[in-house]
UniProtKB/TrEMBL annotation:
Taxonomy, superkingdom: Bacteria
HTH lysR-type domain location: 1-58
Protein name as catalogued: LysR family transcriptional regulator
Keywords: DNA-binding, Transcription, Transcription regulation
InterPro entries assigned to the protein according to its UniProt record, in alphabetical order: HTH-type_LysR_regulators, LysR_HTH_N, LysR_subst-bd, WH-like_DNA-bd_sf, WH_DNA-bd_sf
Family in the record: Belongs to the LysR transcriptional regulatory family.
PROSITE patterns the UniProt entry points to: HTH_LYSR
Organism: Pendulispora rubella
Length: 309
């Protein structure tokens, strides 16, 4: 067994395709297949199921995968540790972000640019996904860190650093009967046609959890992952948007009405594996990001105690 075999196995597992994996590795596809076959013969089990259109791990492959990741991470860590002794920080940072990423409260591009200027030898990759998909990628080690929307519960095995914390509101057109209301109780939303985020997003999880607690099923007629799409639908009078309060600022003809009993909040956070060893590059980025954006957790907890339900 050698590191190149493990690298090939990891890449095929991540890409779910030999052709894409070979292109990523810059190796001919037969070479990738041959090295993985050698590994399977050595272990005495098939690691990949090649029978479908996509390549999947077998039960044996799923068992081997975390060990393969740990071995590759250990080698990378050894190299980076030597670099640290010479004062050079380099390596790789694999980041995910909720799709689409949209907030006026936090500028991810500015943060990444500032970190790159400070550590130009660190290679950064960025990908998009839903909160659920990003959490899974963090837990399985495909991502080092991600910007996710937090739901009603913190994801298992992950540490979180809250970046943005703002109320959810009922967003309506300025000529809507609700526009002049000081607030609307959550239970009254069941009588409205609602527009909100798709399932799998942190904010939708907050809304669904509140609905379950209140025993008040909601009439969600329109779902979208893009807040800009939802804002446009609200502006055309298709219903009441359940969105971050700042979304009402997108168009001057929209108004936000606070939701009370309970007051709901949406949070955007950095997340990473809480117990897995991280590379010097990942540790440096997290320290850099947290220094630039102090955590809002204590602020959130104090606000929750003060507001209650």
């Amino acid at each position: 067994m050698d590191l190149r075999q493990l690298e090939f196995l990891l890449t095929v597992a991540d890409e779910a395709n030999f052709t894409r994996a070979a292109a990523k590795l810059r190796v001919a596809q037969p070479g990738v297949s041959a090295r993985i076959r050698q590994l399977e013969q050595e272990l005495g089990h098939d690691l990949l199921d090649r029978s479908g259109r996509t390549v999947r791990l077998t039960a044996a492959g799923a068992t081997v995968l975390p060990y393969a990741r740990a071995a590759m991470a250990a080698v990378a860590g050894a190299r980076l540790a030597v670099d640290e002794l010479t004062g050079l920080l380099r390596g790789r940072l694999s980041m995910g972000m909720v799709a689409p990423y949209s907030t006026t409260e936090f500028d991810l591009a500015d943060l990444l640019a500032s970190f790159h200027r400070a550590h130009p030898a660190v290679r950064i990759t960025l990908s998009e996904g839903t909160a659920d998909a990003l959490v899974e990628s963090l837990q399985t080690g495909r991502l080092d860190v991600a910007v996710i929307g937090l739901g009603a519960k913190r994801p298992a095995g992950l540490a979180c650093h809250v970046l943005v914390d703002e109320p959810l509101a009922a967003v309506v057109r300025a000529d809507h009967p609700m526009a002049a209301a000081a607030a609307i109780p959550f239970a009254e939303l069941r009588e409205r046609t609602l527009l909100t985020f798709s399932r799998g997003t942190g904010l939708r999880s907050v809304l669904d959890a509140a609905s379950a607690r209140a025993g008040a099923p909601l009439n969600v007629a329109f779902e979208a992952s893009d807040p800009g799409v939802l804002v446009q639908l609200v502006a055309r009078g298709l219903g009441v948007g359940i969105l971050p309060e700042s979304a009402a600022r997108a168009l001057p003809k929209l108004r936000s009405v606070p939701i009370v009993r309970p007051r709901l909040r949406g949070q955007l956070a950095f997340a990473w594996r809480s117990e897995a060893p991280s590379s010097p590059a990942v540790r440096a980025f997290l320290q850099f990001a947290c220094d630039m954006r102090p955590a809002l957790d204590s602020v959130t907890e104090m606000r929750s105690r003060r507001q209650g339900s």
